[in-house]
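Subject: mismatched residue count in predicted assembly?

I count 562 residues in my input, but I want to confirm that the predicted structure covers every chain. Input:
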Amino acid sequence: MPDVSDAPFAFDRATAVARRPGPDAVHDVAVDPGWTIGDKPNGGYLLAMLARAGLESVAAVEGPEHPHPLAATATYVSAPSLAPGEVHSEVLRRGRGMSQVRTVLVQGGATKVEATFTCGRLDPDERTWWGEVAVPPMPAPDGGRRSAGVAPGGIRLPIRDHVDVWFDPATAGFVSDDRAGVGELRGWFRFVDDRPSDPLSLLLAVDALPPATFDIPGTTGWVPTLSLSAYIRALPAPGPLTIRQRAGIIERGLVDEVCEVWDSRGRLVAQATQLAGVRTG
Amino acid sequence: MPDVSDAPFAFDRATAVARRPGPDAVHDVAVDPGWTIGDKPNGGYLLAMLARAGLESVAAVEGPEHPHPLAATATYVSAPSLAPGEVHSEVLRRGRGMSQVRTVLVQGGATKVEATFTCGRLDPDERTWWGEVAVPPMPAPDGGRRSAGVAPGGIRLPIRDHVDVWFDPATAGFVSDDRAGVGELRGWFRFVDDRPSDPLSLLLAVDALPPATFDIPGTTGWVPTLSLSAYIRALPAPGPLTIRQRAGIIERGLVDEVCEVWDSRGRLVAQATQLAGVRTG
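Triage response: the counts match. Full output below for your records.
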C-alpha cells in the first residue's frame, strides 16, 4: 500500500501509487471510497491514478523530462472495487519530445481499467499558436447552484466531499427535474481543500460534471463510461475551472459526450470525449 | 502471411489477418505499401487492420455476437514498416451486450500501434433516440474537387489508388495554396473498387481526409497522429460518405482534430477525435 500520510491534499493521497521493488513497473494503489458516485469510482479519478503510475514509470527509465500527460485514452472494463489494486505499466515509446506508456489497473487478477498516455512537458510560457475555443458566457461562479451530495435518483455522491461543483443556473434544471433538453451542462470545479489544478487533476476535471444526459428528459440513472479520451493542452492558472459537458447523439443505448475545461484566464486547458452507456425511457 | 487471394476488394485484402494455431490470439498481418501517405501507413488503415484482429479474437472466445467496433482508441507509437507483422490481442471484457479487446501491432519485437476496441452489434433498424448532427451543406459530390495522388509538398499518396476523395471547393484552397484559414476540410469518400462501407471501413474513413491544418496558413508537412479515438454509431447506407474534419487549437506543436462521417442518408455514422503533431512557421 502506498504511504501517503504526508501528502497535504486529498486528491494526491487518493491517487497515490507506490512502486514495488524489482525491474517491472508495478505500482500498488488503493481505490479510495471517497471519490465515488454511489459505490462506483469516478472515471476521471481512476484515470488520474493510472496517469500517476504511468508517469512514474516513464520517469524511472527516462528521467524527469516528460512529467505531464498530453493525451490519455482509457477503456473501462469493469468497475473497480474500493480496495487495493496494482497498476502494471509498460513504456511503449521513448522519444526526445514525448513518451508513451500503457497502464492497466488490476484487482484480483482481473483487468478493471486500461489507459495509455502520451507524455511530455507543458511550458507555462507557451501560447496558443492558432485557434480559440471561447469560454461560454456564464454568470459569476458565486451565482451558481452548488451540487449537492445526492444525485437524481437518490445516488449518494461521496466525491462531492472532495470536489465542489457549481452549475450555471441555466443548465441546472435537472436538480428539480426541469430539464432543458439541450444536452449541455456548464459549471465550475474546485477542490474542497483548495488543491491547485495541474495536468493530473485536469484528468479528473474532464469527468467531474454529471453526464450531460441529465439535461435530457427521458434518460435515467448514471452513465457508465466505456471509452474516454482526454487531451491536456496547457498548464492551468490558479482558480476555479470552468467546464462544459455536451451530449452528441443517443442511439442504441450509447451517448457520446464532449467535455471542455477552461482555467480562470479563460484559456482552454483540457478537452475530452467519451462514449458511455445510457438508459432511455 | 494471411491468404487473401480470394477477397474481392482491395481494402479487405490489405487489412487481412490470419490467426496462428495455438491458444494465444496472435494474427499474422502484412502492412500494405498501397495504403500510405508517402511511405507511412495511413492511421485509419492500421486501425481497421487491428480491429479485424481484435474482432476475430472476440469471436473466437464468444461467438459471433459482437461483430462491430463501437468504440476504438489507438495510440501510434512509431510508424510501421511496409512489411509483415503480428497483432497480439487480449480480450479484456466478455459481456452480454459488449466485449472489449486490446490489440498490439508488433514488428521486429517492437510495438508500433496499440488499439483497444469496445465491440457489439449495430442493428440496421436502430434509430437515433436523441440528438442530431446535421450533414454540412455542400454541393453535389460531382461538383467537388478530386484529390490528386500528390499532396502539398510533393508527398506521394499511394492510398488515392484505393480511396477516392473529393473536396468541397469551399475548403479545397490548400490545393493551390489559397487556404481559407478556417481549419476545416469537407469532402466525400468512396472506395475506387466500390467496396461498400461497413463499420470496419468507417475506421479508415475517420482518418481519410488530409489534416484540417492544410486549411491553416503557416503549417507545413504531414501531421503524425499520436492518439486517435473513434465511435461507430450506425451501419452506413450504400453510397459515398460525407466527411468533415476540423482543427481545434494548435499549441506546443500539437493540434486536436474532430472528424465526423455521414452516410448517403445524411445520418451521422462515425465520429472521431485525434491529437497529432504539426509543424508551424
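Chain A has two domains: 10-120, 141-280. Marking this ticket as 'not a bug'.
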